[in-house]
């Protein structure tokens, strides 16, 4: 079993993922996953009429203006000769990076009076060094106390490496202060790069405060809000009240499903980031487009932004209104959710997300895809929860957590989303861990057109069932399990609930010594299905 220590190098994520997944290359994995999506009965997004939408758009505040939420199309991944996955728009990002590099003057923050002794307030020195932008500011090794840094256009802030160059919030900085952010939220900023440093939010300064954050996207280590063309490379964030790294709008939008905040960020790349002690999430995105997150490691949240025992603190969270998000070779450990793609009930869901490579170790819910408030039969069907392709995933030993005391662990949950492909998924359990008669994978709550392909599971000896497709009035539909291998795992191999119209199992082999191999209350279509070792290999009792 893999253990990810605090010192884990995120650039080793890809090597570890390759050891546990079956695809020989990223190219093979993403090509097959995209093909599965193309061959699936694609559900086209539907927009329900809402007579109040136009009126609401007229009276909403500037930053909360409603904007019709359309679903961006899935585009084909680009894979380099080195087998590195890149977004379809990566060429544009590369060009803009070159523009940034050739339009900055190199300066050193110590030239402007910075001391870096961990005691002196160096805020003014940073302000002078940054000037009005078009600067690459070198920050030598040391600990720099600041009250917050705002980046103007065409700025590069470069340290000497994680743990060597440390920016730390001043003891007198208010709880809502962001350590680094862009200069102008209204007009927006562009061409920003932060690299090679540690960001310390200095949580000790707030003492035993009941809550570590204030509101919105305040209280974070680094926030890009209304930024176009932004990069953060090789940066560590420590103990933020809210988020380690945030791609966002200045203000969130809760005007309903289909509404979206204005002043979004776009064309942002995070690479080589590490974060811990976060009050809410490690990396999070809101209402922004064309985002790339790669080779990052988020672990061990504090959960202090929430009430005790109710901390939905995720390693990486693709949240409300995010579109066209790409994730490559990331890792999470000991979080509530490893990777969560979601939305709140009164906001638009994140949509059009591609994941190639994610290692989840000891997270409570390794992979959690949901649109809150759109799960029950009596809830409105989500207009925006569409289009997720994920491949080369590893979920090792999901477990209970004090972060969210009454929640049940899962390796994967899909709720409310349509058009979902999970391909090359390795799920590893501890045979001695008590899962308290819970399922390991759940497809549920009005999820539709969901494909699980090339799934390998073992070790969940004390779980009730390995894979459960929930039925009933809140159930999933149009689910396909293809090339699934389960061995020496839960008491039930696969459970299919009642009243599911379309469910198909192809090339499925399950082996165990439990009670039932396939327990079906609907009528699945079976093609090359084998169950061995169970007391009852197949039990079917279709609902009336």
From TrEMBL:
Residues 107-320 form the Rhamnogalacturonase A/B/Epimerase-like pectate lyase domain. Keywords: Lyase. It comes from the Bacteria. Coiled coil: none annotated. InterPro entries: Pectin_lyas_fold, Pectin_lyase_fold/virulence, RHGA/B-epi-like_pectate_lyase. The keyword DNA-binding does not apply. One of its GO terms (molecular function) is lyase activity. This is Pectate lyase. It comes from Exiguobacterium oxidotolerans.
């Amino acid at each position: 079993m893999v253990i990810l220590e605090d010192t884990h190098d995120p650039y080793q994520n890809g090597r570890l993922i390759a050891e546990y997944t079956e695809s020989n290359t990223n190219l093979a994995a993403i090509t097959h996953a995209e093909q599965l999506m193309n061959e699936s009965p694609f559900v086209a997004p539907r927009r329900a009429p809402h007579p109040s939408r136009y009126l609401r758009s007229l009276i909403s505040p500037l930053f909360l203006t409603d904007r019709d939420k359309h679903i961006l199309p899935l585009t084909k991944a680009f894979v380099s000769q080195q087998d590195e996955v890149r977004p379809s728009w990566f060429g544009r990002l590369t060009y803009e990076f070159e523009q940034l590099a050739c339009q900055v003057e190199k300066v050193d923050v110590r030239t402007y009076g910075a001391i870096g002794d961990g005691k002196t307030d160096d805020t003014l020195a940073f302000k002078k060094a940054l000037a009005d932008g078009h600067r690459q500011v070198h920050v030598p090794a040391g600990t720099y106390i600041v009250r917050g840094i705002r980046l103007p256009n065409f700025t590069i802030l470069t340290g000497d490496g994680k743990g060597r160059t440390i920016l730390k919030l001043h003891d007198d900085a208010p709880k809502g202060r962001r350590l680094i952010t862009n200069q102008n939220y209204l007009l927006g900023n562009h061409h920003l790069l932060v690299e090679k440093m540690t960001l310390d939010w200095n949580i000790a300064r707030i003492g035993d405060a009941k809550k570590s954050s204030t509101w919105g996207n305040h209280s974070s280590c680094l926030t890009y809000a209304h930024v176009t063309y932004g990069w953060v490379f090789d940066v560590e964030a420590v103990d933020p009240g809210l988020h380690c790294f945030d791609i966002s709008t200045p203000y969130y939008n809760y005007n309903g499903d289909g509404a979206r905040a204005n002043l979004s960020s776009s064309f942002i790349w995070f690479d080589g980031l590490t974060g811990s002690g976060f009050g809410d999430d490690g990396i999070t995105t809101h209402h922004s487009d064309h985002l790339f997150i790669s080779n990052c490691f988020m672990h061990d949240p504090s959960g202090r932004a929430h009430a005790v025992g109710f901390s939905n603190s995720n390693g990486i969270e693709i949240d409300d209104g995010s579109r066209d998000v790409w994730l490559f070779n990331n890792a999470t450990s000991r979080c509530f959710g490893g990777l969560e793609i979601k939305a709140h009930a009164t906001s638009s869901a994140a949509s059009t997300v591609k994941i190639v490579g994610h290692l989840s170790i000891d997270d409570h819910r390794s992979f959690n895809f949901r649109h809150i408030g759109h799960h029950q039969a009596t809830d409105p069907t989500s207009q925006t929860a569409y289009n997720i392709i994920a491949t080369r995933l590893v979920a090792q030993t999901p477990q209970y957590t004090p972060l969210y005391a009454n929640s049940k662990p899962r390796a994967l949950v899909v709720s409310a989303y349509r058009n979902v492909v999970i391909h090359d998924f390795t799920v590893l359990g501890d045979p001695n861990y008590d899962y308290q008669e819970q399922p390991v994978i759940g497809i549920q709550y009005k999820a539709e057109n969901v494909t699980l392909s090339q799934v390998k599971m073992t070790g969940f000896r004390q779980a009730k069932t390995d894979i459960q497709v929930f039925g009933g009035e809140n159930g999933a539909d149009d689910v396909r399990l293809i090339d699934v291998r389960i061995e020496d795992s839960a008491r039930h191999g696969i459970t299919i609930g009642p009243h599911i119209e379309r469910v198909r199992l192809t090339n499925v082999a399950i082996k165990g010594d439990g009670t039932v191999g396939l327990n079906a209350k609907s009528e699945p279509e079976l093609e090359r299905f084998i169950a061995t070792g169970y007391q009852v290999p197949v039990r079917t009792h279709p609902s009336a």
